[in-house]
Each structure stands twice: as structure tokens, then as C-alpha cells.
Amino acid sequence: MKKKSRPPKIFTLMLQRFVPFRDQESLLGDFEEMYHLIAEEKGKTRALFWYGLHIIKLIPSFISNTIIWSLIMFKNYLKITFRNIKSHKGFSLINISGLALGMACTILILLWVQYELSFDRFHENADKLYQAVYKFEDQEVYGRYLPGPLAALLKDEYPDIIDSTSYKPWEKKISFGVKSFFGTGSYIDPSFFEMFYFPFAKGDPNTAFSDPFSVVITENLANKFFGNEDPLGKTLTYYAHSQGIDLNVTGVIKNIAQNSHIQFDFLIPYEIGYQWMKTWRNNAVHTYVLLREESNWQDVSKKISGVLNKHIPNSNVKANLYLHPLKKIHLFGLEGGGLITYVYIFSVMALVILLIACINFMNLSTARSEKRFKEIGIKKVVGSSRMQLIKQFLSESILLSLLALFLATLIVKLLLPYINAMLGVELKLNYSLVFILSLFGMALLTGIASGSYPAFFLSSFHPAAILKGQLSSMIILKRKGGQKSTVSQRGSFLRKFLVVAQFSLSIFFIICVMGIHKQLNYIRNRDLGFDKEHVLVLQVTGELKQKSQIIKNELLKNPDIQNVTFSAYSLTDWESSVSGRDLDWTGRKIDRDFLIGNNYVDYDYLKTFNMKMAEGRFFSKEFATDASDACVVNEAAVEATGMKEPIGKKIVWSSGSQNENRRTIVGVIKDFNTQSLHQEIRPFALMPIENILQYMSNYMCIKLKSDDIPRSLKLIESKIKEFVPDDPFIYHFLDEKINSIYHTEQLTGKLTRFITFLAIFISCLGLFGLASFSVERRTKEIGVRKVLGASVSKIILLLTKDFSKWIFLANIIAWPTAWFAMNRWLQNFAYRTDIGIWIFIFSTSLAFIIALLIVSYQSIRAALANPVDSLRYE
Amino acid sequence: MKSITRKEELVMLSILNLQENAYLIAIQGYLSQVTGKKTSLTSAHLPLSRLEKNGYIESKFGEATAVRGGRRKKIYNMTKLGLEALHEYKKISDELWENYLKLATQ
Q1: Chain A residues touching residue B45 (CB < 8 angstroms)
Q2: Has residue A667 been placed in a domain?
Q3: CA angle A804, A808, A811 (to 5 degrees)
Q4: DSSP state of A834
Q5: Residue A482: CB partners within 8 Å, gap ≥ 6?
Q6: Do residue A290 and residue A171 come from a single domain?
Q7: Which of helix, strand or coil describes residue A476?
Q8: All domains of chain B in start order, with CATH
Q9: Helix-strand-coil percent breakdown of chain B, rounded to 5?
Q10: Angle made by CA atoms A625, A627, A631, in degrees to the nearest 5
Q11: Facing residues of A165 across strands?
């Protein structure tokens, strides 16, 4: 008989997939027979069509069947899961809470990352907004402060730039009647309102600044001044200049979101700003531009790069202008680095924490699943397929991780207020779909990752081997090389590997935390070249400026006050600087450009801050010419200018311009570090503020003698109120201000400490679970050993020996990696401490002690137990 | 006793008539032939699986032929329960017929 052509194999395979399992064989046979019948009767094509049609017909019933069965099985898995949780309460508690903590930590970090990444994205034009910045041509010096006329010029001369605005934030006093307030007022061009999204609660942005004597305030400020009254049309007095100017409130802006790098309390037209802001000579304002939709910012950057060199008079400044995207301002520093580094570091940390928690989960479930061999064996014998077992284990771990997720969100909700207070941020749990989905995704992934080992490994054994093995607790598996190993050995190898990984990470964290702590301490205690303790810094306002000498004498009468000094700029901010090219001095040779900071200070400056002279003298009253002729530079300036014998040399500020300022160097002051220790000390010059420059006394620094700070504060306040009764008494302490420079570092320190604590805690939970498990498994062995005469200490040693070996290994892995990471981090600082061997030794011993405590607790309990209890049933 | 449908009655009668050869294709073919209407494979299988689930019929594996790709047939057989149900069905419809015929001849 001629062999008939059979239906295509692929069709048959599909049919097989969809046909109910019970009738698979006979039905497939029936289908094939029918196929041949139709083929004989009506031709092969019809038969093929019929065959194919039935595949499609079967799909719906197949799907509904699958769903029904998986639901039934799922109910079963759920039941088993909860029974397991109930019957091993301790284990489950450790397991779930460890995972929940890890997840909570991850969620918190992700919230923070999300917050940092959300900065400045709320502007409608965010993609097309840029800040103009510059870089010196031959040096790694960057700047954001630019000449005032630049904004208008960019808009006029470059068609790519649709709009531009200057922006000059300025901490100044503003008052309404007797109420006054120090806040950030910013000079802006009217186009600011169109470029940025700062919606008005009241008033019209188009006409707000049609009159230059206007002010737009935030809702916060409006509330402070006017309460529930309508602020529009009210008159505020603004004290930037020596006399106050009256400004009309023309608009109220809704409070600014925290995730904006532009923060202000009120806005003032640039038109009424200082004259010096509007010259090309001074780098005074920030400049923002809005690009045309189709323009490429990199191209525009190239086009505008020469603008500064062309327009700045006496054009020997070689600074290239370029654009920096608005969305990057918060995260990316101009020099590279910036907050983004921490965003990366902490994202990785979040994953690592989750990993540690997963490892725990995996460890404990594998440890426990060996106890469930019998269950697996019986299931297999009764006929469950491997797929079903895998499904069961996976759904169990996914269920547990969902449970942990639920707990984690609770933890996050409880912790969030504290975290926000600690970090000074505004994190919120938002219940957006994306967020919830990503949380579920995380739980699902965690569940799959941690459940996959028991699922795939344990389901792979032959049922007979499992059931027999349960009795002897030894299952012999043939490995490839003919080598034999037992399941428990293989399982325990994996567990040990995971413990090593966990502890390596924990030790790594401990070392990092201690390294960061040491560096921060080093910064705090480093000799900055001046005395920062007990120094009160106040801003001096209008009337006080004219009476500065009087109040100084008044204050000095009090024994609590050691010294009082006035200066034009704050010690900690790099407010005013001049390019080295604008400078001339006797014997000038080098052509390298540099920035030299300057400050106008009174005669008591040196004494107040306890700075030291390296050479020469500080200016003083005794030399009549000092007020107009003297200046003092720091050692860095001497080095930068390359002067050999600086004392007596003439130095000309702003050479070539009309207001040339010619001064004699009377002394060299020892380097003092007012900037962040990330940078080297920069060249600096001090000039006397006496006589003509009286109006520049913007800051008053008061050195307190006593330790009774509150009393001194009260005294100073009452004195100052005598002169300016309406002004709020606002001050800060110098050391606090200096510490705040390292805000990011301290934040990092705090966060890493928190994360490390969690990492160690979770690892310990895991170790605790594992130790108790392994002790429990060896109860009988311990009983026999005791009966045969082993001492308690020997048994403890036996049980702890193993763990210490693995923790030792973890150390070996953690040391070099941590050393490498810390070194990289320390590279950020110009002044840094050594990591030192002690940190390593300490963290190792800490890890050992914690681990030993945990393991020995279990061991001692086991060793002290009466062997009768464990052997009674044998 | 659960009631059976007309379709199920026909399927069970086919099984009885086909005797040792009562498998799906044969039943479907027999039904098409008797009723004169094309019965699809699926519409024959549905009552079969329901009857089997209720215990009216039982099945065993039969021979495997080349035309089936070497797969065995599933041969159906009536159970005692099935036979009872069939008789019950017949009794009810006979009674109804008798009554009607009586009325018609009067």
C-alpha cells in the first residue's frame, strides 16, 4: 500500500499542545484519521484546512482550561505557603522581615533618586532651556557668573536663541511697614516669566514688570507680610542699596517646588539692579537662554564660544562661553562629577541591598527546602510534573516577596518623615501607576531571583532518590567527572558561597562608612588657617552700615565679645574675583591666567579670625596710608604671580580701566581655607575697608569669648535692635556655615551609615537563620557527641569553626575592593586623609564579632542542651 | 438520576449499535449517516466527554492503526448506569407517545 502523506508535523504538535491531556492520544489519532478521510474524499487542501481550523477552534477551551487549572493549583500553592509560614514561624519571620527591610531600603533610595532626577523638569520648555556658562581656555576653571549685558546680546545676535534672561539671586532685606524679612530676591528680565514655568497665583506675568519699580513675590512671602489681604498694589521696601527703594507688588507666584534649582522669595526687574551688574567688566549674573525648537545646543555652544573674548573690554580674558542644559544643572557639575555620582552610587547600593536581602531569602529557603524533600518526593510520586514543582516554589517565593513588599511599603510610610527630616528633602510615596507597577515588578523579580534556586534545583531529582535520601540524608548524585557529591553538600556549598558574598558586601560597606567618616572628621578638624569657632556672622543693613564704627565700639565694651570686624564679602563665599590678566604688578612676567579672589576688610579682620602672617604685616591704623594704598595677599597668590619678594611690590587692580586701583603689598598672609576642601587654596587678596569704602561693610563678624552663647546672643541682639529696631535678628555661626559646605558629603555619610547598618542587619538575620538551621540539623550529632564525652567548648568550636572560615574569606574579597572604592572617592578631595590599615582591621573584627556572637548563641544553646532530649526517639 | 439530552441519547445508541468499534470517528460517521446531517467531530466529542464524566459510558484503549499515526483508538462502552438512563429516557418518551397516539385515535 502506498504510504499516505500525514498531516504536517507542526500542526500536529500544536494540536497536541491544545488538546486536553487526558484524551491526548486518542483524540490526536482521531484527528489524523479524519484528516485522511477528508483528504480522500475532498482533496488534500480541504483536509489541511480542516485540520488547521481545529487548532484554532481548540484555543479558547485550551485557554480557559489552563486558567481554571492554574487557579486551582494556585489555591493549593497558597495553602501550602501559608501552612509553611505557620509551621516555621521563626524562619518565616526572619525571611520576610529581612526581605521587607531590604525592599524598604531600596524603595527609599529609589524615591530619593527619583526626586533628584526630577529636578527642573517641570518647566514646559525644560528641553530647550540652557544656562550659559564659561570655561577658561587654558585651565580647568569654570564659571556660572557672567556679565549682565550678555543676555540681551545673545538674544539679539543669535537667531537660535529665542529668549534670554539674566538672573541674579541676592540675599537681601525686604519690608512692609514694620515687618521685615531677609530673603532671596532675584533680578530678572521680564522674559523670565515666559521662559520658566512659575505660575502666577495673582497678577499678570505679561504686565508685571512694565513699571521697573515692581516686585513679584511668592505665596509664602505674601502670607508672611499680608496674611489674607490682597497683596497686589501694596508697596514693599527693598534694601539692596544703602537706601531702601519702594516697589509695587504686581504679582504673586505660587510657591516654588523643592525640585527646582531656581529658588527665590521675590523677583525684581533687572533694570533697577546695580550699575555694576550691567557692565561687561563684572561677572555678576547668571544667564539663561531658550533655544529654538530645531536648534542643536552643541552647535549653538560652538557659535557663542567667542562672545566673551570679543565683548569684554581689554580683551585678554580667554574664556569660552558654552551652554549647559537646564535639566543637568542640579545633577552635573560643570567640572564633571556632581550629585549624579551619588545618584549612581546610591542606585547601585539600592541594588546591592536588595541583592543581600535576596541572598538571605534564597539561603533560608534552600536551607529549609531540604527539609521539604519528602514533600517534593511524594508530589513527584503522585504525579506532579517538574514544571508544576517549579511553579509551586516560584509562586511561593513570589507570594512571600509580595508579602514583604507590603511590609516594606508600610515601613517606608512610617520612616519617610524621619528620612525627610534627616536628609532635608521632600520625598513622597506617590501612588502613580508606573510607581506601583515598578514596585510589583521589583517584588516579582525578587521572588523569581530568590525562588529560582530551590525551584529548579530541588525539582530536578528522582523521586525515589529523594525519598530514600530523606532517610539516610545522603543523596548520591553523579557529577560529570564521575565525582560524587551529595545534595546537601551541593546545597550547603551554594549557601556558603552566598554567605561569603553577603559578608563581603557588609564588610565592604563597613570599611566605606568608616573611611567616609574619617575623611569628614579630617575635614572638620583640619587647621583651616583661621579660627572658625564662636564666630557669629551677621548681614549689615542700611542704617547699620553708616553706624558701623559706633556699634563696633558699643559691642566691644562687653567682656563677652572678643572682637568685631566688618567685611565686604562673606568669608566663606567666593563672591568677588578678578582675572589675573586684569592684574599688573611690578616685575610681571608670567602669562598664565588665574582668578584672584578679593575682599575688603577692616583692620581687626586678622585678629578676629586669628589668621597668621607669613611675612610682613597686616594693615593697621598706625599707618595712615594703609587705607588707600595697602593690600595683603595670601601665599597662594604669591605663588600664582611668581613674585620673589612680594613685600613692597606694587599691584594694580583692573589695569587699563578708569578705576585703576594701585596698591602696595604690605604683607603675606598664611593660606587660609575658606572654600571646600575639594579644591586647592586659591589666590586671594585683602584690602582695607576703612574710610571711603565704609558703605561696603556688608558683613559683621563677631568673635565671642564666653561659652555662654545664648547670653552673648541676647546681648548682641539687644544692642543691634537699638540701632535698627525693625530688622529681624538673623545670624549664623561660621563653623556651621563651613560644615554646610560638605552637605553632600555629610548626606552621603549619613546615607551610607544607614545603608550599612541595614546591610549588616539583614546579613545577620540571614546568618542567624542559617546558623539555627544548621544547628538544628545537627542536633542528633551533637547529642551523640555529648554522650560520647565531648565537652561543651569543643562542640561550640565545632559549630563556629565553619562559619568563621567563610567570613575570613569574605574579608579577603572585601578588602581590596573597598580599598579601591575609597581611594576613588578620596580623589575628589584636594586635602585628604589616609584610609589606614586600622579601618580594615576594625571592620574585620567587627564582622567577626557579630558573626561569632550570632553563631555561638545558637551553638551554645545546642551544646548546653541535654542529649537525652535529642536522642530520646532514636 | 441526571437527565440526558437527545444528542446524548443518539450518541449512546450509536455506541450500542457500533459495538466493539465505538470510537469517535465511527460514532461521528454513524450519526451523520443515520440523521442525514453532517455532524462535526467536536460536536460528537462534547456529549461523549460529558457522558464519560457522569459515568454513563466508559472507555478503553483499542487498536492502533497506521492511518491514525500509530495512535490508539479510544473505544467507548455503555455502563450499567448508562443503560438505565437510556431505558428511562425511552420509557418517558414511549409513555408520551402512547398518550398522544391514544388521543389521536379517539
Answers
A1: 27
A2: yes
A3: 140
A4: -
A5: none
A6: yes
A7: strand
A8: 6-105 (1.10.10.10)
A9: 65, 15, 20
A10: 95
A11: A288
> What is the predicted pLDDT for the residue at A574?
66
A555 lies in which domain range? 542-726
Strands (E), A303-457: 319-325
**What angle do helix axes A89-117 and A44-87 make, rounded to 10 degrees?**
110
Can you list the positions of beta strands (E) in A673-767?
A: 684-688, 699-704, 731-733
pLDDT tens for A416-470 read: 888 888 777 778 777 778 888 888 888 888 888 878 877 787 777 777 766 665 4
Q: Which three cell numbers stand for residue A730?
A: 538673623
- Rounded to 5°, angle at Cα A381 from A375 and A383: 105
A29 min Cα distance to partner chain B (Å): 4
- Same-domain pairing of A276 and A356: no
Q: What type of residue is A198? A: F
C-alpha cell at A302: 560652538
Nearest residue of chain B to residue A25 (CA atoms)? B71
**Where a domain ends, among A22, A53, A80?**
A80
CB contact under 8 A, A12 and B69: yes
| CA pair distance A640, A593, nearest whole angstrom | 9
Say if the Cβ atoms of A32 and B49 lie within 8 Å: no
How distant is the Cα of B106 from the closest Cα of chain A, in angstroms?
51
Q: How far apart are CA A437 and CA A379, in angstroms?
A: 34
> Is B100 in a helix, a strand, or coil?
helix
Backbone angles phi, psi at A191, to 5 degrees: -65, -15
The amino acid present at A83, given as its one-letter code, is R
Q: What angle do CA B32, B36, B38 make, to 5 degrees?
A: 45
Residue with cell 567548648: A793
Q: Write out pLDDT tens, residues A5-24.
A: 788 888 888 888 888 777 78
Indicate the SS3 state at residue A246: strand
- Scored b (16 or more CB within 10 A) or e, B48-80 reads bebbbebebbebeebeeeebbbebbbbbbebbe
Does residue A255 come out as left (phi exceeding 0), alpha (psi in the -120 to 50 range) or beta? beta
